[in-house]
Amino acid sequence: MSDHSSSSPTSRSRSFRALLRQVLHLQEPPQRTALAFAVGVFIAFSPAYGLHTAMVVFCTWLFGLNFLALLAGAFVNNPWTIVPILGATYWTGAWLLGRTETPTFNWDDLSFNGIYEQVVPYIVPFAFGGLILSVIGALVSYPIAYRLILRYRPSRGVSTTPPLPPHDQVG
Prior knowledge:
With 171 residues, the protein is mainly α. The chain has eight helices and no strands. The chain is elongated and about 70 Å long. It starts with a helix and ends in a 19-residue tail after the last helix.
């Protein structure tokens, strides 16, 4: 008979909860979770559209940050907020660079070259505005996330389930 058949449902439940805690990084300090969320918000306002999820995965791998907190922050930019974020990004950059012209688009030439020529003049204000709003968003979101985590995360002394060993000590 295998060892799995002798394990009780209670021990399996505790083991699942320990695994869930490790995946959700519930054992990490609230400052680190708030930092992961703030980095995610930075990514949300980043002008690198199409690369946000890759940036989340890269930051998780490079800095060992909480993937779910990063992803939640990056999802500040979503289908309901993308148009206001795009507009705010461009207008912030244009205002800071002293540009006053209103963007126009010629719908008569929808070739790749035609669209490219129409978009190029707006790339610098868009990228600059995205950088500025990324920094502001991260700075504003960190203290908000930190306070919410402190308020809603149970204190460390409540858990009776020990955390799983680091992955390099398993096996």
